[in-house]
Design a protein that fits this description.
D-tyrosyl-trna(Tyr) Deacylase, Chain: A, ten-stranded mixed β-sheet, 3 domains, 627 residues, Rossmann fold, 28 strands
């Protein structure tokens, strides 16, 4: 910190306009000042300064020592960013300046000085008349012993966080986990309980099958980036875009007005709402330093959606409604914790927020959200086991609500009652699948949020004209894009483990039909068939390489292509296609229209997209590993 001390015969200032965004409104009695016989302390907070009281008291003592020596009646603390080129970020500087003011006021007023502080973050006009004696102009420079700048909000400190685990059964019984006798059908719940309650380590050592599937379809780590960041080849990109589109379709099932938005991934940590929300994430945040501020990379879509909705004029008639953004999100996971497609530093979250009148309506909406979440995982052929994190007050007042959810799930739910720390939510649900190695893996989420509407200034007008804060439901109905693909692969891995042929749902298969001409003379007919398939937005390619038909079939099977069609003289003359269907050892004869109808039936209700690569295999480089 650098300070310039001027003993002034007269000093005055007047506030003009804000110099920074989101600075507090200046009270009328502080918008101007005129004093005589004042020690004016022009103050520059530098990037290594800290809010350490002992460090700031040393500065206060020096200032008051000068004030005593020059016999000043008043001390004016004046923020002044021109004494150093090593400035602290504005949000940090403001906090340190305010702390310095507090300590100066406490000590100075005890000694009979009148203490004033000019507003931080504003342009001000000032006039000063220096007295001109030997001590009238002095400068000081300070630096803490540990010269670190804490731009990151410190996580909330509590004496103790108490977790009480209980199981709620479908018939409404509440049982301690250590006393519950799990049946064979409840094996998945038992695995979750062992991990969450008894902290038993997950199985390790064996490489999961899904990693091979990732390689097959071009989902892999990016070696030129930070750990935890993925890249997507053409096949993977098709899958990614389809899941992104599907997330929008699923959200429409909520049955309330739905708005899709898009925004930035960087938010100012100097914003009080962002900083307060960020406390829960602490060191897990990515941050970016700029000339004027510290930006945090979002870890969900909350900041953008809440910022936007806070500017909407909302009536009670508009509620409930939902907002969705397919949001690239960032979490600074530890290097040893990153898992391809599952635990990433950069991932894509179809984050939906539902704005409701009150807690009771939020509970009713949660029933619909719960129904959709389970319906979607059942479509994949998997099931969820659930961990409900709730506050003590919510558990005691709404235990019947939790019992109803357990009844709907048809198996025990694990409830974690949290005491000793305040969150913005009263209920935070993690929906886990159990993977091929018998490890719980969270996919979908659901929260009831009672804090962020107030924090971000989101209000609606009631019938009698009052302004109230809505209760917000956070949900990722299908999980992140990457985790949904991960869940699809887990279903395939379980199938393969059981001796079945693994496959992708036809709607998600990058190539849905591969045409294999017996020789070059049938290539033209293949192109005609492909044109007809593409008219129906069926993704089709043609293996026109100089390879044997048997090799082409083997390679198509390795890529899990649902329909492989070999075209030769018989097919061109009869119009009946010879079709291999994945998982079916029988060769099928069908017309092109029958093939189209079959694929359209399998993909009904799911999104479609184009083939993101040349139709002919001869035009593709070897862009992915051979599996």
């Amino acid at each position: 910190m650098r300070i310039l001390l001027i003993h002034a015969e007269r000093f005055s200032y007047a506030v003009r306009e804000p110099a920074l965004r989101e600075v507090p409104e200046v009270p009328e009695d502080r918008r101007s000042l005129a004093v005589d016989n004042a020690l004016v302390v022009f103050t520059t907070v530098e990037k290594w300064d800290a809010e350490d009281s002992e460090y700031l008291r040393k500065i206060v003592n020096d200032v008051l020592d000068v004030a005593r020596k020059v016999k000043a009646s008043n001390v004016v603390l004046y923020p002044y960013a021109h004494l150093s080129s090593e400035l602290a970020k504005p949000a940090v500087a403001m906090r340190i300046f305010q702390k310095l003011e507090q300590l100066l006021r406490e000590q100075g007023e005890k000694e009979g000085f009148k203490i004033f502080a000019a507003p931080f973050g504003y342009y001000k006009a000032f006039e000063i008349k220096c007295i001109g004696h030997p001590l009238a102009e002095l400068s000081r420079s300070y630096r803490p012993e540990k010269a670190e700048q804490r731009a990151l909000p410190v996580q909330e400190q509590v004496q103790e966080v108490k977790n009480t685990y209980l199981l709620i059964t479908p018939d409404g019984r509440i049982v301690k986990p250590e006393e519950y006798k799990f049946t064979e059908a409840e094996r998945d719940v038992e695995i979750l309980v062992k991990k969450e309650v008894f902290k038993q380590e997950l199985p390790g050592g064996e490489e999961p099958r899904y990693l091979t599937y990732c390689k097959k379809f071009g989902l892999e780590w990016e070696p030129l980036s930070d750990i935890g960041h993925m890249r997507y080849g053409p096949e993977a990109c098709i899958m990614f875009d389809l899941v992104e589109q599907y997330a929008w379709q699923v959200a429409k099932r909520l049955g309330v007005p739905l708005f899709k938005i898009r925004g930035t991934n960087m938010f100012r940590l100097s914003s009080p709402a962002v900083a307060e929300h960020a406390k829960l994430f602490g060191e897990r945040m990515y941050m970016l330093e700029t000339d004027t501020d510290t930006l945090v990379l979002r870890y969900a879509a909350c900041f953008q959606q809440f910022s936007m909705v806070s500017s909407w004029v909302i009536s009670y008639r508009d509620l409930p409604f939902a907002v969705i953004e397919i949001a690239d999100s960032y979490r600074y996971e530890q290097p040893g914790e990153t898992v391809l497609c599952f635990r990433l530093r950069k991932f894509t979250m179809p984050d939906t927020h539902i704005f409701t009148h009150d807690l009771e309506e939020a509970k009713q909406m949660c029933m619909k959200v719960h129904e959709i979440i389970f319906d979607e995982i059942h479509k994949i052929g998997l099931d969820y086991v659930s961990l409900y994190n709730v506050t003590r007050e919510f558990f005691e007042q709404h235990v019947d609500f939790l019992k109803e959810l357990a009844k709907r799930e048809g198996k025990p739910i694990l409830v974690n009652i949290i005491e000793g720390r305040k969150y913005y939510w009263v209920m935070n649900v993690e929906f886990h699948i159990i993977d091929e190695l018998e490890r719980p893996r969270e996919i979908a989420t659901m929260q009831i949020d009672v804090g962020n509407a107030q924090r971000f200034g989101i209000v609606y007008r009631t019938p009698d004209g009052q302004m109230r804060h809505p209760v917000i439901i956070h949900t990722a109905l299908i999980g992140s894009v990457e985790r949904y693909i991960y869940a699809i692969f887990q279903r395939a891995a379980l199938d393969e483990k059981q001796g079945k042929i693994p496959r992708l749902p036809t709607w998600l298969a990058p190539v849905q039909v591969r045409l294999i001409p017996v020789s070059g003379e049938f290539l033209k007919y293949c192109e005609e068939v492909a044109d007809k398939l593409e008219e129906h937005r069926i993704r089709v390619d043609i293996d026109d390489r100089e390879e044997t038909v048997s090799k082409k079939i083997r390679e198509a099977e390795k890529l899990w292509i649902p329909y492989i069609v070999v075209i030769g003289r018989e097919e061109t003359s009869t119009g009946k296609l010879t079709v291999r269907i994945r998982g079916d050892k029988t060769l099928h004869k069908m017309s092109l229209d029958e093939l189209i109808s079959r694929i359209e039936e399998e993909t009904r209700g799911y999104p479609k997209t184009d083939l993101y690569m040349p139709r002919r295999l001869s035009m593709r480089p070897q862009y992915r590993p051979i599996v």
